[in-house]
Amino acid sequence: MRKYGICFLSAMIALLFGFAVGIGLGGRHIRIEEPVPDPVYETESVPDVRVVIDQEETTAPAEAAEAAARMDRYILVSETGYLLVFTEGNKDECMQTHIPITDFPEEEQEKLRQGIWFDSMMEVFFYLESYTS
Description:
Blueprint: H1 2-28, H2 61-71, E1 74-79, E2 82-87, E3 93-100, H3 106-114, E4 116-118, H4 121-132
Antiparallel strand pairs: 1-2, 1-4, 2-3
């Protein structure tokens, strides 16, 4: 038992000696630097120059408004037994509802197979809610 006590005591002395040497060596090399006088900070800025390269109108204002109005129309249609929502200007799938057509009465099912047009997505939601709630 005395043998383990001597080993423990020598390990503690070595550990304390290591801490003392580390503090003694590390404390001598600390250097305090002076701040940089009058620092210049760069800021990000964007010039306010707005140059229009191509000033010709590509579409007439009435045609542009009509095209925007067409993009806001939605069609609710049944494909593969489920209802899908498409936009008029873009025939890519807009929203898949996962609502089966069988949840609707026969008369509405025929209309949905042909497609029902709505002027806003909120109208589509209100229509679906009226039959699925």
